[in-house]
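Dear H.,

Thanks for agreeing to be a second pair of eyes. The structure we're designing against is below in token form, covering all 288 positions.
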């Protein structure tokens, strides 16, 4: 059951990211994330009274708030990366960083990564180098001490930052207790929605657009919330390392949808890099 829940979570995460990427190409990313986060919050608020009673502690709610802020920033950056770059590049790079964060945290607490995890980290670095390749030359890092930013594929830097934030989201959410049920998710979504709504007000970003864009943002937010809930349920039913490994494969869903509906293409070298990125996700989390 845990494996099935994790796979469903990964598929929905990827679909939500795909929809978010589509929407941010038509409207401001702050507005898209605000509506997406708000729609997920509304869904959970409606469903929470129908769920079994829970007993969240203050620590659970604080971890949920931290997860919400990190996750909101991560999703916002991810959508922005999709808006300016290729989904087939941004999604895997973001996933690599997202799984590296828990590995670094475990080392900080005294754990030492095994050969599998170290191998995954090496493969991740190689994957990032490969997906950074652009037609007609090597990646910017190989150009010398003062590389030209224009040589990097669009959205790569944003993808890296997004992955770091999403990694902290997974890390914080994992600190909550099973007895807290979905309350940490509710607090997390409240924090992220409030933060982006405030950002929209401060930057004077309009929250009203054509109905088609609004529908995409709302549907993406609902899918993301369902994916979050499935992730928590899966993590509480099975091995966390197995669950996170499966959930971290969400870029595959995004890439498949981008190729199917947008006709996105990647160079052969970038294709190898994307494949290695997915391998790195499995090795890093599976070896942690």
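And this is the sequence the design step returned. I haven't edited it by hand at all.
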């Amino acid at each position: 059951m845990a494996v099935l829940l994790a796979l469903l979570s990964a598929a929905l995460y990827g679909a939500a990211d795909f929809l978010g990427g589509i929407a941010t190409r038509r409207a401001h990313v702050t507005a898209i994330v605000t509506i997406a986060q708000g729609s997920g919050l509304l869904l959970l608020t409606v469903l929470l009274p129908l769920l079994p009673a829970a007993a969240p502690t203050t620590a659970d709610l604080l971890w949920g708030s931290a997860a919400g802020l990190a996750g909101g920033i991560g999703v916002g950056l991810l959508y922005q990366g999709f808006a300016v770059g290729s989904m087939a590049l941004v999604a895997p790079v973001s996933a690599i960083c997202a799984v590296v964060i828990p590995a670094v945290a475990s080392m900080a607490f005294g754990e030492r990564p095994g050969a599998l995890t170290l191998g995954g980290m090496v493969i991740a670095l190689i994957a990032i180098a490969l997906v950074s390749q652009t037609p007609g030359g090597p990646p910017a890092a190989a150009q010398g001490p003062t590389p030209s930013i224009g040589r990097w594929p669009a959205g790569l830097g944003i993808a890296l930052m997004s992955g770091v934030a999403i990694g902290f989201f997974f890390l914080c959410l994992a600190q909550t207790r099973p007895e807290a049920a979905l309350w940490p998710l509710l607090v997390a979504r409240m924090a992220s929605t409030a933060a982006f709504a405030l950002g929209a007000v401060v930057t004077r970003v309009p929250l009203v657009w054509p109905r088609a864009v609004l529908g995409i943002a709302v549907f993406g937010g609902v899918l993301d919330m369902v994916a979050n809930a499935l992730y928590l349920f899966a993590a509480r039913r099975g091995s966390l390392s197995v669950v996170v490994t499966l959930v971290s494969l969400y870029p595959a869903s995004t890439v498949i949808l981008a190729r199917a509906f947008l006709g996105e293409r990647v160079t052969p070298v970038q294709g190898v890099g994307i494949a290695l990125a997915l391998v790195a996700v499995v090795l890093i989390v599976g070896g942690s």
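Two observations from my side: The chain has eleven helices and no strands. The chain has a mean pLDDT of 83.

Warmly,
E.
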